[in-house]
C-alpha cells in the first residue's frame, strides 16, 4: 500500500494535507464529514466548493510538499461557520479538523506508528517530539512544535505545548482526543490551564498548558513496579566516573548548568582544558531539539527527547561563567559557518539526557555522529575513541550515513538560499527607492521610455492644452531658530498632504520651490478634463490644509496669483 506523508501536530509543513500550520490535515476531506448536534453528517463536494469560494482561495486541491499560508486553515474554519451554519463556532471546527486528521491518517496505517511508541498514552505523549524529529528528514523545512509532560498522576497528566504560532490550541485538542479514543481506547478530557508567550528566548515562544484527565492507573502501576523491583536489588554505590568510562563522550552537569565531570574523549576534544565548574553553554551548543533555550528546566522536561549537541572546541573567554542564551538564528548560522577541509570539523554528539537524583545532576549519555572513516582524522578522532557498545564503529566501517550530517548539509544549502532571498529582497527594496527618487524628478512615463532605450530628445513633447496650479504657503515667517524649525515641520506636513492627493485627480507634481507648490494636469498624460482636475484639486487642498495639526499657527495657502 502506498503511504501518504504524515504530520502529527501543527507546524510549518507542507500542504493543507500538510498546511504550513497543520501537518497533515487534508482539507478536501473536511466537508465530507462535518459535525452536527446529532453526530457526523456527510455533505459532499458541493459544500467543499462553497467553503473554498467563501474563503476566497483559488486552490481546490492541496499538494504535499507545497507550502501554504499559516492563516489558511483558520480562514477555512471561519468559512465553515458561515456556510454550514448551526450552533458550531470557530473553535468547534478547529477541534473537529484535528479529529478529522487522525481519522484520515489512520486509513493509511499511520496509527501503527503511534501504537509502536509505547504501551500507554503517556508513552505516546513523551514521544511526540522524537516522531517530529524523524519526520524532519522527509520534511526538512518543517518547524515542529514541542510537547512535554510536567506532572503525571493516576488521573492524567499536565502537558505543555510550545509552538511558533498561535490559534491552533483547539486543533491540537481535537487530535489528542481522537488519538486517545481511537488508538488507546480511553476517554480524554482536556482543560486549558494557561496560555501565553514565554519570556525566554527561542522561536517556540507561544505555549499552552493543558490538563489531560484520563484513566492513567495502569501506567503509574507499571512505573511503580519497575521502581520497586530496582529498589529491591542491593547494589553498592559507585562514583559517576564509572559512568563516564562507559560513555567517554558524556558529560555531567549541575542545575546551575556547571560542568561536574566529562568523559575522557570529550576532555581530549577540549584540549584537556580544566572545564570543571565552567558553564556548559561555553563548551557545548544545543542543536536538537530546535527552537528552545538551552537551560536546565527545558532539559529536565525533555529527557525523553533525543538531544544533539555540538562540541565547541575553543570556548570564548568571558562566556563560561554565566548563562548564555543565543537565538536560534545565531545558532544555525554558527553551525553552518563551519571550517573547511583544512580545519577541524565540528563534532556532533547524539544521545539522551538522564537526571541522576542522588547527586542532583544531569548526565548527557551520548556518542559522536560520524559518517565514515574519512571524517575521523578531520575530527581528530580514531576508531578506538568510540564507544565499544552501540553501533558507532559498525556504521563507520560499513559507510552508513547519519541523517544528522545529511540534514546539516541541507541546512547549509537552505541557509545560503535564505541569504540569497534576503539579498534579492534588499535589491528590490533599493530598486524601489531608486524608482521613487527618479519619478520624483521626472515623469514616470518619461523614465520608462528612457529605460527602454529611447533617445533623450525623443521624449520631449509639446502639449497644447494644460492647466497649471501654483499654490503658495502664506504667513510662514520665522524670527528665531525654534520658529524656523516649526516652519520647516509645517511645510513638510503640508507638502506631504498635497502629494497624497495628486493621484486622485490625475495631476502631476512639477516642482516645489521654497514655499511654492507647482502642479499640472494634461501633461505628461493628456486628458480633456485638465481644468476640472486642477479646480477639484485646488478645492481639496484648501479643505485638507485646514484639518492639519501644525506646529506653527500659520496654515493658510494662496492658490493662483
From TrEMBL:
Q: What is its EC number?
A: 4.6.1.2
Q: Where in the cell is it found?
A: Cytoplasm
Which GO molecular function annotation, any one, does this entry have? heme binding
Q: Which InterPro entries match?
A: A/G_cyclase, H-NOX_domain_sf, Heme_NO-bd, HNOB_dom_associated, HNOB_dom_associated_sf, NO_sig/Golgi_transp_ligand-bd, Nucleotide_cyclase
**Where in the numbering of this chain does the Guanylate cyclase domain appear?**
467-561
Q: Give the Pfam families listed for this entry.
A: Guanylate_cyc (PF00211), HNOB (PF07700), HNOBA (PF07701)
Q: Give the UniProt record's GO annotations in the biological process aspect.
A: cGMP-mediated signaling; response to oxygen levels
Q: Which GO terms describe its cellular component?
A: guanylate cyclase complex, soluble
Main location, first listed in the record: cytoplasm
Q: Which keywords does this Swiss-Prot/TrEMBL entry list?
A: cGMP biosynthesis, Cytoplasm, GTP-binding, Lyase, Nucleotide-binding
Superkingdom of source? Eukaryota
Top EC class, one word: lyase
What protein is this chain from?
guanylate cyclase
Q: Which organism is it from?
A: Polyplax serrata (Common mouse louse)
Amino acid at each position: 500500500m502506498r503511504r501518504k506523508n504524515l504530520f502529527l501536530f501543527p507546524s510549518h509543513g507542507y500542504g493543507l494535507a500538510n498546511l504550513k500550520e497543520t501537518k497533515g490535515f487534508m482539507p478536501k476531506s473536511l466537508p465530507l464529514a462535518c459535525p452536527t448536534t446529532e453526530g457526523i453528517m456527510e455533505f459532499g463536494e458541493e459544500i467543499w466548493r462553497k467553503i473554498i469560494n467563501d474563503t476566497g482561495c483559488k486552490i481546490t486541491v492541496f499538494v504535499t510538499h507545497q507550502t501554504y499560508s499559516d492563516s489558511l486553515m483558520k480562514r477555512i474554519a471561519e468559512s465553515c461557520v458561515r456556510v454550514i451554519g448551526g450552533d458550531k463556532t470557530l473553535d468547534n471546527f478547529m477541534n473537529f479538523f484535528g479529529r478529522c486528521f487522525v481519522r484520515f491518517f489512520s486509513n493509511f496505517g499511520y496509527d501503527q506508528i503511534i501504537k509502536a511508541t509505547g504501551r500507554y498514552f503517556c508513552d505516546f505523549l513523551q514521544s511526540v517530539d522524537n516522531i517530529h524529529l524523524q519526520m524532519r528528514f522527509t520534511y526538512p523545512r518543517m518547524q515542529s512544535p514541542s510537547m512535554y509532560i510536567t506532572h503525571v498522576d493516576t488521573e492524567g497528566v499536565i502537558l505543555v505545548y510550545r509552538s511558533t504560532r498561535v490559534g491552533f490550541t483547539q486543533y491540537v485538542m481535537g487530535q489528542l482526543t481522537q488519538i486517545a479514543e481511537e488508538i488507546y481506547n480511553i476517554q480524554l478530557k482536556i482543560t486549558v490551564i494557561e496560555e501565553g508567550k514565554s519570556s525566554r528566548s527561542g522561536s517556540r515562544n507561544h505555549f499552552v498548558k493543558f490538563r489531560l484527565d484520563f484513566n492513567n492507573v495502569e501506567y503509574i502501576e507499571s512505573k511503580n513496579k519497575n521502581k520497586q523491583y530496582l529498589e529491591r536489588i542491593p547494589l553498592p554505590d559507585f562514583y559517576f566516573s564509572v559512568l563516564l568510562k562507559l560513555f567517554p563522550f558524556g558529560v555531567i552537569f549541575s542545575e546551575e548548568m556547571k560542568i561536574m565531570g566529562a568523559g575522557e574523549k570529550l576532555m581530549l576534544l577540549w584540549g584537556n582544558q580544566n572545564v570543571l565548574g565552567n558553564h556548559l553553554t561555553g563548551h557545548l551548543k544545543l542543536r536538537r531539539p530546535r527552537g528552545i533555550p538551552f537551560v536546565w528546566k527545558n532539559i529536565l522536561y525533555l529527557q525523553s527527547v533525543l538531544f544533539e549537541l555540538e562540541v565547541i572546541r575553543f570556548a570564548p573567554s568571558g562566556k563560561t561563567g554565566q548563562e548564555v542564551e543565543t537565538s536560534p538564528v545565531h545558532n544555525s548560522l554558527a553551525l553552518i559557518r563551519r571550517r573547511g577541509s583544512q580545519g577541524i570539523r565540528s563534532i556532533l554528539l547524539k544521545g539522551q539526557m538522564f537526571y541522576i537524583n542522588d547527586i542532583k545532576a544531569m548526565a548527557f549519555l551520548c556518542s559522536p555522529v560520524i559518517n565514515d572513516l574519512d571524517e575521523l582524522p578531520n575530527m581528530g578522532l580514531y576508531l578506538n575513541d568510540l564507544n565499544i557498545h552501540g553501533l558507532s564503529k559498525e556504521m563507520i566501517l560499513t559507510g552508513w550515513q547519519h541523517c544528522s550530517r545529511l540534514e546539516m548539509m541541507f541546512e547549509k544549502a537552505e541557509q545560503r538560499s535564505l541569504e540569497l532571498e534576503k539579498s534579492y529582497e534588499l535589491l528590490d527594496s533599493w530598486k524601489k527607492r531608486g524608482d521613487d527618487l527618479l519619478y520624483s524628478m521626472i515623469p514616470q512615463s518619461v523614465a520608462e521610455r528612457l529605460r527602454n532605450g529611447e533617445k533623450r530628445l525623443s521624449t520631449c513633447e509639446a502639449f497644447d492644452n494644460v492647466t497649471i496650479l501654483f499654490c503658495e504657503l502664506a504667513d510662514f515667517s520665522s524670527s528665531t531658530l525654534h520658529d524656523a524649525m516649526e516652519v520647516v515641520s509645517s511645510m513638510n506636513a503640508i507638502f506631504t498632504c498635497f502629494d497624497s492627493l495628486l493621484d486622485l485627480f490625475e495631476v502631476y507634481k512639477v516642482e516645489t520651490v521654497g514655499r511654492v507648490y507647482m502642479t499640472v494636469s494634461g501633461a505628461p498624460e493628456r486628458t480633456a478634463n485638465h481644468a476640472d482636475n486642477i479646480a477639484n484639486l485646488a478645492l481639496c487642498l484648501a479643505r485638507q490644509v485646514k484639518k492639519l495639526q501644525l506646529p506653527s499657527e500659520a496654515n493658510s495657502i494662496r492658490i493662483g496669483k
